[in-house]
Amino acid sequence: MTCSDPPTILVADADTSLRRFLTAQLTADGCRVFDAELAVQARARAVAHDVDVLVLGELEDPAAALALLRDLRAGDGLHGQMDPGLPVLVLSADPGGLALLRAFEAGADDWLAKPVSYVELRCRLRAVLWRSNAAMNVRSRRRVGELELDTTGREVRLRGERMELSTKEFALLQTLMTEPSRVFTKDELLREVWGFRSPGRTRTLDSPACRLRSKLGTHGDRFIVNVWGVGYRLADTPRVAMGEAA
Fold first, then answer.
1. At what angle do helices 118-139 and 16-28 cross, to 10 degrees?
2. Pairwise CA distance, residues 241 & 149, whole Å
3. Which of 71, 82, 145, 162 is the most interior residue, by most CB within 10 Å?
């Protein structure tokens, strides 16, 4: 593993000596490192520091690390939650036992037996990060017809021309492009994009949606379709969006 583009690593383990050792070695290699002793600390620091990989060992009790891993994979990464795609390297004192099996079933990406060999840890971290980056590059681009959205670069292009969108307009389009054929209700969009817990009656969504439709419709296209009384969806064929309200 090289740290020319330093990854941010979270080391979560109840063993203070192990945490200090790994933190010192990874820091010496140029990485940004945070550590956590408890599951609640690991959750908070994973979100606060936008970590690239989690090294997960034994926490305050045998079930804590497994519960943290399951919570991680079950989340959506929104509103202060951990990124469900965060790569996780498990440190196991029982590499041939049920604990390792349960960790992989819960969503671990790789494992390393204790006592930890730092050289092997570096190799496995490099492999986990490479796989994660490769998968992220695939997931980061979404395309609907001639409309392309790049989540990593936070860029939208229509027929190769870069579109200037506000933060909310970008987030709204990104949500719609996750499932282009589905109608998203207004309540769903208010929760996903604005973080409203109980949207109720509000016109918060209407203005950004209208501006987004206008920006994408400069050539007569109708990418954003308003399904009357329900919400919004993307048009599969933007120039022909029949049967639904404009």
1. 70
2. 21
3. 82
Q: Are 125 and 11 contacting, i.e. CB atoms less than 8 angstroms apart?
A: no
Domain ranges within the chain, ordered by starting residue = 8-139, 141-234
Q: Against a cut of 0.70, is the pTM above it?
A: no
**Interhelix angle 167-178/186-194, nearest 10 degrees:** 120
Chain segment 18-43, per-residue pLDDT in tens? 999 999 999 999 999 999 999 999 99
Residue-wise pLDDT for 152-174, tens only, equals 778 899 888 899 998 889 889 98
Q: What CATH number is given for 141-234 in this structure?
A: 1.10.10.10
Torsions phi, psi for 43 (to 5 deg): -60, -50
Residue 233 is encoded by which pair of tokens? 């969806």
Helices 98-106, 64-74: inter-axial angle, 10-degree rounding: 20
